Amino acid sequence: MSLSVDVRHTLGDFRLDVQFDAPDGVTVLFGRSGSGKTSVVNAVAGLLAPSQGRIVVGEQVLFDSAACVSVPVHKRRLGYVFQEGRLFPHLTVRQNLLYARRVSGNRSQDGLERVVDLLGIGTLLNRKPGALSGGEAQRVAIGRALLADPLMLLMDEPLAALDGARKAEILPYLERLRTEAGVPILYVSHNVSEVARLATHVVVMEEGRVLKAGPASALLSDPGMVRVMGVRDAGAVIEARVLRHAADGVTELQFSGGVLCLPEVEADIGSELRVRILAQDVMLAVERPSGISALNILPVEVLSLRRGEGPGVIVQLRAGTNMLLARITRRSADALDLREGSSCFAVLKSVAVAQTDIGLGLQS
Amino acid sequence: MDFLGPEEWQAVALSLKVAFWATLTSLPFGLGVAMLLARGRFPGRQVLNGIVHLPLILPPVVTGYLLLLTFGRRGPVGGVLDQWFGIVLAFRWTGAALAAAIMAFPLMVRAMRLAIEAVDPKLEQAAGTLGASRWKVFVTVTLPLIAPGVIAGAVLAFAKAMGEFGATITFVSNIPGQTRTVPSAIYAFLQVPGGEESAVRLVIVSVTMAMLALLLSEWFARRVARRISGR
């Protein structure tokens, strides 16, 4: 099941002109607020009628301006999770969930239990929405969307209204959704760490247009995207397998470029994790440093150097089959005489990697 | 009831009947107009709003006279009703119900409109994305959320219908047992010597019922806010 979007629309001064395909998995529409992400999702959901274009999910044409096709909202079978939950206040959590199953004509009987388990909302079933925290309400909203048995889930910044702790509470559920729900997800976000945790595919939007689209790992390690992500948020993601939990509290992970040491990670040995390594946390050395506290010293090859407008340089590195980004000053790059193809060492403090930047891998 | 004499009791019973039917039959229209005014975006919305509120501002005798002109046996609507369906409104209790319904309509619409405006259309949108058609959304989301407001409007309209006088007496006169509602009866008792005692008893009934209705209506209106907050 894939989504194909081709939409042109004018809203006052704002012009939307967007084409992209979203394969299975989680496709994140990424961009600043006002870049038109929500308009795109609303067009897919049928809440906004674009002036021109064509939207297809799987085999079903939802919208085609040339053929005058526009399937009404309630017949599109797309689950929409809004930023503010939008639970029905006169119904309990259980009734909210059952409502979705009833109006959608979803016949499966085991659905409720499975969704309740998946999202951990079993204890909330008899509460009214007004008595839920923001994070709980959002989990229920996701459950409600799933129980409508959708062909695809649309999520419009579902975590934007939550604080850091609540976000961290929901992200693992979204990761489980990615692998267990078997429903492709179109996810709107302007938060790079959410992209790094969840995305399998990224569509970067800017001023109503698609700037670039591609697999998440490629886009996040693309020096050209650093400007969009923000220099402080830019960083590559790597997939690694848990090797062992050492007695001193360090977890060792194997990835294609070597062994990565991180402060204790709660994960079973052998499980696949996805780790985001911020470009600004990576140091470079032309010789293997010794007598240094950093635990991770990885041999890498410089793939490219990209000078920004300021004093910084983004260095794209190859470690095994993975790519890393390092952000250093132009002065350092000159002093080390870094060029494309030169070999060096990437140095990373273990504790620099935040727990929230470690998530479930795509394979798990 | 020993408190009321037979004549007084007849007036109270008639008022209850008139108010009941006036409220019940105007309920769907009230809800429709309230929806149009709260959600509709069409030219002439302000005009509709004005027409609905007109009975509140016009002298009731004018409303009653206009009703007589329109729904009287020789009026354009009344004539058709009489000849085609055999329905006569003028000088009948049904006419009293029509007059009461029209006079109470603005109060009913106002209460319902406030309730509808308190409902976030985003909730209805969410129901749509889950697969509910427009009609289903109205029945399963909008209506349950505004239900207390609808009841509040109905209660208020009922109380107003109980007490309607000016338009009623102009349109259907003051016929004992047929169109002599509580206010008409009070008026009639005050015209005859020694009728004051009966009048005072009916006044007490009127004040009590009006007060009860106001309290009840307020209570239901507050329930709207509670429902919408989801606690």
What is the CATH topology descriptor of the largest domain in chain A?
A: Rossmann fold
Tell me about the largest β-sheet of chain B. none
Number of helices, where a helix is a run of at least 4 consecutive DSSP H or I residues of chain B: 10
Amount of helix of chain A = 10-25%
The overall number of domains of chain B is 1
GO molecular function (chain A): ABC-type transporter activity; ATP binding; ATP hydrolysis activity; molybdate ion transmembrane transporter activity
Keywords (chain A): ATP-binding, Cell inner membrane, Cell membrane, Membrane, Molybdenum, Nucleotide-binding, Translocase, Transport
Organism (chain A): Puniceibacterium sediminis
Protein name (chain A): Molybdate transport system ATP-binding protein
What does the secondary structure layout of this molecule look like, with pairings?
The complex is a heterodimer of chains A (364) and B (231).
Chain A: E1 3-11, E2 14-22, E3 26-30, H1 37-45, E4 52-57, E5 60-64, E6 69-70, E7 78-81, H2 93-104, H3 111-119, H4 134-147, E8 152-156, H5 164-180, E9 185-189, H6 192-198, E10 201-206, E11 209-215, H7 216-220, H8 226-229, E12 235-245, E13 250-255, E14 258-263, E15 272-278, E16 282-285, E17 296-307, E18 312-319, E19 322-329, H9 330-335, E20 343-348, E21 358-360
Parallel strand pairs in A: 3-9, 3-10, 7-8, 8-9
Antiparallel strand pairs in A: 1-2, 1-4, 4-5, 5-6, 10-11, 12-13, 12-15, 13-14, 15-21, 16-20, 17-18, 17-20, 18-19
Chain B: H1 6-39, H2 45-57, H3 60-71, H4 76-85, H5 93-117, H6 121-129, H7 134-163, H8 166-172, H9 182-191, H10 196-229
Helix pairs in contact in B: 1-5, 1-7, 2-5, 3-8, 5-7, 5-8, 6-7, 7-10, 9-10
